[in-house]
Amino acid sequence: MKAYRLYGIGDLRYEEADMPYIPEGWCLVKVEAVGICSSDIPRIYKNGTYHFPTIPGHEFSGIVEKVNGNEDAGWLNKHVGVFPLIPCMHCEFCEKEQYEMCEHYDYIGSRRDGAFAEYVAVPVWNLIKLNPGMPVKYAAMLEPLSVARHALRTAGLEQGQNVAVVGTGTIGFAAAAWACCLGADKVTIIGRNDAKRKTAEKMGSIQYCNFQKDAVESADLVIEAVGSEQAVELAVGSAKPGGTIVLLGNPYGNTSLQRDIYWRILRKQLKIFGSWNSTFKNKKYSDWKESVQAIDSKLINCEALITYEFSFDHLMEGLELMRNHVTPYCKVMIEM
Fold first, then answer.
1. 26 CB-near residues (< 8 Å, 6+ apart)
2. 6 and 124 share a domain?
3. What residues of the chain score a pLDDT lower than 50?
4. Where are the beta strands (DSSP E) in 51-202?
5. CB of 28 within 8 A of CB of 69?
6. How far apart are the two ends of the chain, measured CA to CA in Å?
7. How far from 29 is each of 35, 64, 315, CA to CA, in Å?
8. CA atoms of 125 and 102, how far apart (whole Å)
9. Nearest Cα to 156, choosing from 38, 43, 275?
10. Within 10 A of 242 (CB to CB), how many other CB atoms are there?
């Protein structure tokens, strides 16, 4: 099969690779579409993966082409999405079905080979069955949509609240879209320039604020979806007294809080939560099932989030577009 294998930081090669081995309880998924996550950029060009070589890619959809065991034969030829976190199933959090908080997890695309390949090995447990009519590129959006849904669940969003989202990446726009779906009275995306204003307009019901020239209104709930010191400070400044902040953005370096920002957290009596990954196969709720329903019912406009599409053999162009910020983008999607 063809795959993009990372041999070292910045050393990604498009080449022939062996077909993945599938142990009992696993399956072989033929990748149909894979999104490039913003975390893939530092993973490939700055920080590396957990071992080399590794095939990156964790936001994907595909078709189950092979299983190991007759008990899983019902999955054959099914259109699926894939939860990329592989829990240990033995720690205290797995026992409570809080799999996203597993203490000994594996992860497709960083700790093990992922979906920048024609085929990927996946535990059957990690599959979610999809309507065959769901476009493959929309199905590949399930992971970021579920991460955003999890943040809103963590926040405990109440109907009628005003919501602000700091950050104009895929997760930020997805969080804003979910806030609209869940009954927020007003939803505002806060960016550092006007580059993503058109994306907000395509989403509908989402206002856009360029904090460098527009007044930033206070919100009941602020989702920080960047992971930078400036974004955290902006989130604190944008929250109403007694409001809630959810920290969702992955930090790409050390961050610190200025004394004045720390004091504002205290004096505003803000509630601050952290949100990580998404909930999958919890008997009480599932971010993934809700994301599937949102796509099927067209509650979330995936087409507006996907700004660029490349064929598999042009994946490097998508990576370079994101790495060098050649042009404004939201989600860069690769279709086989």
1. 67, 68, 121, 122, 123, 124
2. yes
3. none
4. 59-67, 79-82, 85-86, 106-107, 119-123, 127-129, 162-166, 186-191
5. no
6. 13
7. 16, 4, 19
8. 15
9. 275
10. 10
Give yes or no for a contact between 331 and 170, defined as CB atoms under 8 angstroms apart: yes
Whether residue 111 is found in the same domain as residue 161: no
132 in the same domain as 7? yes
Other C-beta atoms lying within 10 Å of the C-beta of residue 239: 24
| pTM, to two decimals | 0.96
* SS3 label, residue 230: helix
Q: What is the pLDDT of residues 46-90, one digit of tens each?
A: 999 999 999 999 999 999 999 998 899 999 999 999 999 999 999
> Of 257, 274, 291, which residue is a domain's last?
274
Dist. CA 295–CA 302, nearest whole Å:
7
Residue 306 lies in a domain: yes
Picking from 335, 196, 122, 194, the residue whose alpha carbon sits closest to that of residue 176 is 196
Q: Are 166 and 254 contained in the same domain?
A: yes
Q: Are 282 and 96 in contact (CB under 8 A)?
A: no
Which pair of structure tokens corresponds to residue 260? 């004045």
261 is in which domain, residue-wise? Answer: 148-274
Number of separate domains in the chain: 2
> Within this chain, do residues 219 and 113 fall inside the same structural domain, yes or no?
no
- Do 11 and 33 lie in one domain? The reply is yes
Contact predicate 216/190, CB 8 Å: yes
Residue 86 lies in a domain: yes
What local confidence, expressed as pLDDT, does residue 216 receive? Answer: 86
Is the separation of the CB atoms in 237 and 211 below 8 Å? no
Q: Residue 294 has which token pair?
A: 């949102």
Q: Contact, 120 vs 31, CB < 8 A?
A: yes
Q: Phi and psi at residue 239, in whole multiples of 5°? A: -85, 140
Cα–Cα distance measured from residue 330 to residue 333, given in angstroms and rounded to the nearest whole number: 10
282 within a domain of the structure (yes/no) = no
Record the tokens describing residue 89, joined without a space: 């199933």
